[in-house]
């Protein structure tokens, strides 16, 4: 009886753990390069970066087509029109997109946090970059900023976990053992 009390929880644990979850990791932005222009500054942590003035955050990649690229971003306009500061993302030969600018958010406006996601149509053998650009003035009091976080590159070739035949056998055995113990308790209770 003591053995069945030990085996039952063990069998249940094996049955529950027989699957596996997908694994991903956010980009460590401290491994990226920064380039600063006029009144440019960059504050970079492992999963968060803020670029101000005229600044660039970039890294070289060699990625196959089909990768998913995503991140969260926030643009803060530190200026007014006609000084149309802007923020962009550049992904190799796949895209160059203006995320926001002063004209979009308004004078001294804020975009609010946005999520960007795309699947790369072409391979990337080059740079992925975020930039903010301070247009027509050099006054640091009027410098706009771009913040990025949760930068993620997901491979299209990561297979969905499929239980192996051995794990299916262990799972079936564990569930069978649980059924046997339950049935035995029902018979002994009668």
Keywords:
3 helices, elongated, five-stranded antiparallel beta sheet, 23% helix, 190 residues, 37% strand, 2 domains
Number of strands: 10
How many distinct helices? 3
Number of domains: 2
Span between termini: 17 Å
Annotated CATH architecture of the largest domain: Sandwich
Q: Give the ordered list of helices and strands.
A: HEEEEEEEHEEEH
- State the CATH topology of the largest domain: Jelly Rolls
Instruction: Report the sheet with the most strands, covering strand number, pairing sense and barrel closure.
Output: 5 strands, antiparallel
Q: Provide the gyration radius in Å.
A: 27 Å
Helical content band: 10-25%
Layout of strands and helices, then pairs:
Layout: H1 2-16, E1 33-36, E2 41-45, E3 48-52, E4 55-63, E5 68-76, E6 86-91, E7 95-101, H2 102-105, E8 114-119, E9 124-133, E10 145-154, H3 165-189
Antiparallel strand pairs: 1-4, 2-3, 3-10, 4-9, 5-8, 5-10, 6-7, 6-9
Helix pairs in contact: 1-3
Task: Describe the structure in your own words.
By secondary structure, the chain is α+β, with helices and mostly antiparallel strands. It folds into 2 domains: 2-21 and 163-189, no CATH class; 29-154, Jelly Rolls (Sandwich). It is 23% helix and 37% strand. The chain contains 3 helices and 10 strands; from the N terminus they run αβββββββαβββα. The chain has helices at residues 2-16, 102-105, 165-189, and strands at 33-36, 41-45, 48-52, 55-63, 68-76, 86-91, 95-101, 114-119, 124-133, 145-154. It has a 5-stranded antiparallel β-sheet. It has a 5-stranded antiparallel β-sheet with strand order 2-3-10-5-8, with no helix packed on it. The longest helix has 25 residues, at 165-189. It is elongated. The relative contact order is 0.23. Mean pLDDT is 82; it is low at 10-23.
């Amino acid at each position: 009886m003591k053995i069945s009390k030990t085996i039952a929880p063990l069998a249940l644990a094996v049955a529950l753990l027989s699957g596996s979850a997908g694994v991903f990791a956010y980009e460590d932005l401290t491994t990226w390069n920064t380039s600063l222009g006029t009144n440019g500054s960059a504050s970079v942590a492992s999963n968060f970066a803020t670029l101000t003035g005229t600044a660039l955050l970039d890294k070289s990649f060699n990625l196959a087509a089909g990768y998913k690229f995503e991140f969260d971003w926030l643009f803060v306009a530190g200026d007014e029109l006609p000084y149309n500061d802007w923020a962009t993302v550049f992904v190799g030969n796949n895209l160059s997109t203006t995320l926001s600018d002063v004209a979009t958010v308004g004078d001294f406006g804020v975009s609010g946090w946005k999520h960007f996601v795309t699947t790369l149509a072409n391979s990337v053998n080059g740079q992925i970059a975020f930039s903010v650009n301070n247009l027509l003035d050099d006054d640091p009091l009027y410098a706009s900023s771009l913040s990025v976080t949760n930068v993620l590159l997901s491979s299209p070739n990561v297979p969905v976990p499929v239980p192996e035949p051995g794990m299916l056998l262990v799972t079936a055995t564990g569930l069978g053992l649980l059924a046997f113990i339950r049935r035995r308790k029902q018979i002994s209770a009668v």
